[in-house]
Amino acid sequence: MTIEIMLDYFSLEGVINTETITAIRKDGALRKNLIYYLRQNPNRKLALTLLNEFIILRKSPQEMVPVENLMFACYILGIHQQIEDSLKIWEAKNVDFDTYCGLDIQLIAFAGLEKTIAFLKSEAGVESDKALAYITACAAGGDLDDLDTYFSVEILPWFI
Predict the structure, then answer these.
(1) pLDDT for 55-71, tens place per residue?
(2) DSSP assignment of the chain, as one string?
(3) In the chain, domain spans
(4) At residue 160, does pLDDT exceed 90?
(5) What is the distance, to the nearest Å, from the Cα of residue 159 to the centroid of all Cα atoms in its chain?
C-alpha cells in the first residue's frame, strides 16, 4: 500500500477501507511516511476518520487493536494543531482501562500545555473537566515538561 493509493481511495469514498487499516496497523514505513506526508500536506479529515475507525475497532470485542494504533492516530490528528481535537484524543484515551493507562497524555497537549489548559477551561462539560483535572495533575508531576521533543519533526515517538 502506498500513501497515494490510500489518499485516492479516501478522497473518492470518504472512508478508510479495511486494507488501509491493516496496512497502517502493520507497516511501520507507511506510518512514518504518512506522518511526513501529513506534515507537508495536512488532511485533518483523514486523520480524524482514522482515529474514529481505530476507536470503533478498539471497542469491538473481535478486534485486538493495540493502544499503539490509537496513539498513532492521535499523533497524526494532533499534528494538524486544531485545539478542539484534544477532546477527541481524550475520548480515545478513555475507550477502556488499558487505553486510559497506556495512551500518552502528551498526545492531548499537542498544541502546548498552556493552550490546552485554556481550551479545556473554556469548554463546558464533564469530559473537559475530567481532561483538565488529569492534564493539570500530569503537568504538576512533570509528565508534560518535554512536549517539544515529543512532537519534534526530527524524533518520532516509539509507537510510530
Answers:
(1) 999 999 887 789 999 99
(2) --HHHHHHHHHHHSS--HHHHHHHHH-HHHHHHHHHHHHHS--HHHHHHHHHHHHHHHH-TT----HHHHHHHHHHHHTT--TTHHHHHHHHHTSSHHHHHHS-GGGTTTT-HHHHHHHHHHS-SHHHHHHHHHHHHHHHTTTTTTHHHHT-SSS--TT-
(3) 3-150
(4) no
(5) 11
Question: What are 22's three cell numbers?
Answer: 491493516
Residue carrying the nine cell digits 486494507: 19
Q: How many residues does the chain have?
A: 160
Q: What is the C-alpha separation between 95 and 140, in angstroms, rounded?
A: 24
- Which triple of cell numbers denotes residue 112? 502546548
